[in-house]
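User: I'm curious whether this sequence folds into something compact or stays loose and floppy. Could you predict its structure so I can see for myself?
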Amino acid sequence: MKLLIVTTATQFREQVSELCKKASIESFSGLGIDGYKSSQAQLITSGWFSSEGDGVGSYLFFAFTNREKTDELLRLITDFNHEPETDNPVRMAVTRLEEYV
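Assistant: Here's the prediction. I'll summarize afterward.
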């Protein structure tokens, strides 16, 4: 069993949902989040807490699935990331679950 985590800019939420379905991941969850990008110089000059509210609308998907489906979604997302011109590519991570109920 694998835990699949995908983050994307909100503008690609529907496309990523469709990619999950194409990879036969029929059951997944998602929630809106704020995404942040900072260079080390920005962190030093702006302090620890940002007062500018510079978060970007993002979306997080997660699912419990098998290796074959995560491999297919990885291929689909890799292809997708080559299509649009954006500074915010879709990100995906997969981790093995040692125990689950």
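Summary: The beta strands are 2-9, 29-35, 56-65, 91-96. The chain has one domain: 2-34+58-96.
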